[in-house]
Amino acid sequence: MASSIGNTAIKRIRADVREMMTDPSDQYYAAPLESNMFDWHFTIRGPRDTEFEGGIFHGRILLPSEYPFKPPNIILLTPNGRFEVKKKICLSISAYHPEHWQPAWGVRLILEALISFMPTKGEGAIGALDFTAEERKKLAKESVVWSCPQCGSIKDLIPEETKRDKPVESKYASQIAQLHIHNMEGATPSTPSEETSSEEEATPTEKPMATSSDADESPQSEAAPVPASVAAAAPVQPVAPAVTIPAPAPARAPSSDVVDNVLQGIATALIVAFLALLYKKLLQLNGSIE
Ligand SMILES: [Zn+2]
């Protein structure tokens, strides 16, 4: 029943609000809009010892009506150089990856995971940006004066940072570490490199020896070296060794080579697709066992 799901979500969202109020962090803050409990606005500090340090970033967490059984969408609003703004970003905690989401997780884990993902590589994920450290530092500096049309000046939304030597250990540390592993797995694999052509290098022609009898007198010999272009223009065809074993394929015309390459490409693509499918099935199998 839709209404009972809605009730579950509202109860859970109220619990998330209470948790944020009773155990506040100086690294993040979030609250739902008064007009819509499913639309949260959050403020996070850029993680220490990274190019985001000193920055304050604001965004939205859009909880689904099936919350906490389905993951939220996450949108950044403050320019930061790691995530596109006003775009639903792809992370292992976001709606793009329901397979990783666990109902026990709430807004607090989402924010802590988001902060920990900031210094990681974008890997071409949806909404990811790979700005340089300098650009990110500049954006972090500018971010503190950023203002949300609905919430106002974002630096006033987050509790004052308390001085401490070490960052507070998150109670979700091990789960967040696991999420980083998932994110690595989700990264698009690099395309296999093209086969390098095995073209024969032109055998270098013998350089004419300097005929000067006295080497000390004229080290720069007058003998003109063969220009490289001339040497390359006439590649020496290697003499094919006498074939004694019957060759399975006689010398092929260039056109059949092209066909062969295309067929090989298709075969490779099919194998890769099959392996990807197998890997996905394995993951699903793992998920159902868990
Ligand atoms: Zn806001």
Automatic annotation (TrEMBL):
Which InterPro entries does this one have?
A: Ub_conjugating_enzyme, UBC, UBQ-conjugating_enzyme/RWD
Region (Disordered), start-end ranges:
185-229
Compositional bias, Low complexity, is annotated for: 220-229
Q: Where is the UBC core domain?
A: 8-157
Origin superkingdom: Eukaryota
Q: Which Gene3D superfamilies match?
A: Ubiquitin Conjugating Enzyme
SUPFAM superfamilies, A to Z:
UBC-like
What's the protein here called? Ubiquitin-conjugating enzyme E2
Q: Which organism is it from?
A: Achlya hypogyna (Oomycete)
